[in-house]
Amino acid sequence: MPDTPDILRYKPPKRLKAAGIVAAGVAVAVVAFGLVGRGLAARQSEDWTQAEAVPVVQIINLAGRGQAPSLVLPGAVQAFNSAPIYAQVTGYVLKWYVDIGTPVKAGQLLAEIDPRPYQAALNQASGALARDSANLAEAKLDLGRYQALAAQNAISSQQLSAQKTTAVADSGVVAVDKANIDSARINLGYTRIVAPFDGTITSRSIDIGNYVAVGNGSGTPLFTVSDRSKLRIYVRVPQTYSAQVVPGMTAAFTVPEYPGRVFTATVQASSNAVDTTTGSVLVQLQADNTSGALKPGDYAQVHFDLHGNPSALQVPSSALMFRDSGMAVATVGAAGRVAIKRVAIAHDFGSMVEIAYGLGPQDRVINNPPDSLRSGDHVQVANAEPAQGTPKGH
Fold first, then answer.
1. Which of 2, 60, 110, 253 has a beta carbon 3.0–4.6 Å from 300's, enabling a disulfide?
2. CA–CA dist 185, 180 (Å, integer)
3. Spatial CA neighbour of 150 closest among 135, 163, 139
4. Which pLDDT band, with edges at 50, 70 and 90, does 40 fall under?
5. 378-388: per-residue pLDDT in tens?
6. Total structural domains in the chain?
7. What is the spatial distance between Cα 333 and Cα 365, in angstroms, rounded to a whole number?
């Protein structure tokens, strides 16, 4: 069979094979590049997610240590002496002489109760004394005669003994009469109601014609006299600070009716006993009030300047963490790892607390730590901020 002509025989292009090889290589490169790009994107996404999962915290600089602030507590102002005056005899009010706000002196007459019944009782007791004194004098005279007769054996010893008994009995009657006179004189004096000391009338509850009875201290007093020249201020100091508030200490106080005006008082005494109900110690201060500006019953805010340890570390209350084991704070180490440290609070000043132990000046304390924070957690530290200034009062 004759050979097939060359025109009918298939001849592939000379560079087709090379082009196919190049195309396959390009496809493999594209696929590889895509896989590598996706892997890099996934890695970047994972790194970003991990970075976002690490909390960012602010650090408190403990280098600045504040002085102990003043302690501000409510106080009750009372008159140095205050006496509610009750009736000590029963009767009708004849007249009263002073009203509220009137300054009075010791012994000054405030009111009178009708004295006539008590004057009559005094006159009656005086008459009984005169009568019984005469009987006693006669009995003593008879006793003298009986003794003379008995010396001569003119009367029996029984008669002499009876006369002695009569004289002794009459003497006892005279003593009772004298006591009755004293009682009647005292009751007559009680019809004059007088001031017990220098002061000011702060209450009056009687009027002319009112019937008053002997007071037992549970009813309304006729008058109240208060000595306002000096005042007592009673403050309940929390047990934590009671050791720093001692007699002789000076304190400043303010009252609402004089905004911006500051008064001074001195600690006079302390109960030295903790009230189990309030956990506080009652402290008494004394203030001079010769100007009369202050009033008994005032509400006062008393400022005590505490002399705490100036080197003690203080942190904001916002840095505290309440854990089952007690009070704690979170600190950050050099590697950004969290360490939870248990601390003890020496004094609580409100926005700031003084740490007794558990922290050192080199510790980096986290402010506003999240409740989920645990020891060993990794955190990012923002720029450190200094501890806030110690507040002026609590």
1. 253
2. 8
3. 163
4. low
5. 888 886 554 54
6. 2
7. 10
Q: Which of 65, 62, 55 is nearest to 382 (CA)?
A: 55
- For residue 356, pLDDT over 60 is answered with yes
Residues 6+ apart with CB under 8 A from 302: 72, 73, 74, 75, 233, 235, 251, 252, 253, 265, 285
Residue 136 is assigned to a structural domain of this protein: yes
In angstroms, the CA 280 to CA 90 distance is 44
185 in a structural domain: yes
Exposed/middle/buried for 359, CB within 10 Å: 0-12, 13-18, 19+? buried
Domain that holds residue 324: 312-386
Q: What is the DSSP letter of 261?
A: -
Structure tokens at 31: 């696929």
Q: What is the pLDDT of residues 51-83, one digit of tens each?
A: 446 788 888 877 545 555 678 999 999 999 999
Q: What single-letter amino acid sits at 150? A: A
Q: Which DSSP category does 62 fall into?
A: T
